């Protein structure tokens, strides 16, 4: 008898859940939730933004399917944070949440509310408590090679792998610090929960051994930054020497003067055909 009652109770709960309104969240995680349930979304850095995507489809308390049941998403966020409600009747609904740049490390609550405007579909509202972990540790990256070599004025590529373990799709900035007269930065996108591969070129116009830091940082917060030390060896190329000869620069003793004209001609012909 007790076993029968237990089975009937479980069945009643399942029927109740099946007929209740729900919210299908499609990003940054995929999960179906019901009113007053809680979910964990993932990691986010201070100052970063993330999007909550959800389907407008749901059912009412009688099990009737409403293809456009929810009309918008709104949120209640911690002090200093910002939330932009999804536009009315958007499919999927897309709401933006921005973390305070001064947020300390820790777990925070974002109350998500799915709204049936005017209650036309007799759904009322559905509220879900979503939690995020604020930390600057939202990505890792690797660099290869860390020791480069090239001729004067010749670009050398660095390969960079960024593993975005957070829920933000905000851009990352790749830059190099310590290379004189080289201040180029590159803005790249590594989507949440994914890995991206990028190429970053460096070059110098003067020979020498340059030690520099390759940096990958969030475009949203200076607190989210990591660097790798690297070395760039720049050597004079033979072609550059030939070109210098054409400008009147002596290579060595006067006995080599007969070769100057030929070497300068080689440089001139090469530059003519490579810059046409």
Mind explaining what this structure looks like?
The protein is built from 3 helices and 19 strands. By secondary structure, the chain is of the alpha+beta class. Strand 15 and strand 16 (185-188) form a beta hairpin. Helix 2 (238-246) crosses helix 3 (257-274). The longest helix has 18 residues, at 2-19. The termini are far apart.
Record keyword descriptors for this entry.
single chain; 276 residues; alpha+beta; Immunoglobulin-like; 3 domains; 5-stranded antiparallel sheet; 5-stranded mixed sheet; 19 strands; elongated; disordered N terminus; disordered C terminus
Strand order within the widest beta sheet: 2-1-4-9-8
Count of structural domains: 3
What pattern of helices and strands is seen along the backbone? Answer: HEEEEEEEEEEEEEEEEEEEHH
Shape: elongated
CATH class categorisation of the largest domain: Mainly Beta
- Beta fraction: 35-45%
Counting DSSP E segments of at least 2 residues, the number of strands comes to 19
Compute the separation of the termini in Å: 93 Å
Mean pLDDT: 81
Query: CATH architecture of the largest domain, please?
Result: Sandwich
**CATH structural fold name of the largest domain:** Immunoglobulin-like
Quickly give the structural class.
Answer: alpha+beta
Give the oligomeric state: single chain
- What is the makeup of the main sheet? 5 strands, antiparallel
Tally of separate helices: 3
- CATH superfamily of the largest domain, by name, is Immunoglobulins
**Rg from Cα:** 30 Å
Uncertain regions spanning at least 5 consecutive residues: 1-18, 240-275
Helical content stands at 10-25%
């Amino acid at each position: 008898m007790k076993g029968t009652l237990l089975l009937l109770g479980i069945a009643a709960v399942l029927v109740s859940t099946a007929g209740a309104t729900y919210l299908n969240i499609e990003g940054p995680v995929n999960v179906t939730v019901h009113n007053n349930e809680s979910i964990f979304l993932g990691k986010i850095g201070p100052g970063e933004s993330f999007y909550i995507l959800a389907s407008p489809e749901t059912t009412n308390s009688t099990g009737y399917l409403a293809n456009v049941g929810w009309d918008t998403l709104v949120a209640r966020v911690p002090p200093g944070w910002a939330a932009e409600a999804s536009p009315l009747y958007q499919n999927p609904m897309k709401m933006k949440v921005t973390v305070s740049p001064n947020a300390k490390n820790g777990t925070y609550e974002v109350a998500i509310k799915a709204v049936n405007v005017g209650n036309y579909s007799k759904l009322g509202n559905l509220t879900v408590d979503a939690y995020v972990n604020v930390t600057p540790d939202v990505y890792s990256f690797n660099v290869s090679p860390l020791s480069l070599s090239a001729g004067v004025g010749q670009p050398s590529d660095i390969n960079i792998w960024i593993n975005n373990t957070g829920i933000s799709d905000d851009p990352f900035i790749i830059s190099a610090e310590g290379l004189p007269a080289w201040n180029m930065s590159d803005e790249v996108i590594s989507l949440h929960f994914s890995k991206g591969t990028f190429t970053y070129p460096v070059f110098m116009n003067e020979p020498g051994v340059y030690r520099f830091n390759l940096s990958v940082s969030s475009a949203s917060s200076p607190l989210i930054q990591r660097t790798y030390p690297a070395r760039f060896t720049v050597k004079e190329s033979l072609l550059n020497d030939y070109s210098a000869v054409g400008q009147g620069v002596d290579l060595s003793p006067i006995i080599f003067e007969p070769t100057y004209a030929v070497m300068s001609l080689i440089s001139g012909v090469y530059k003519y055909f490579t810059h046409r």
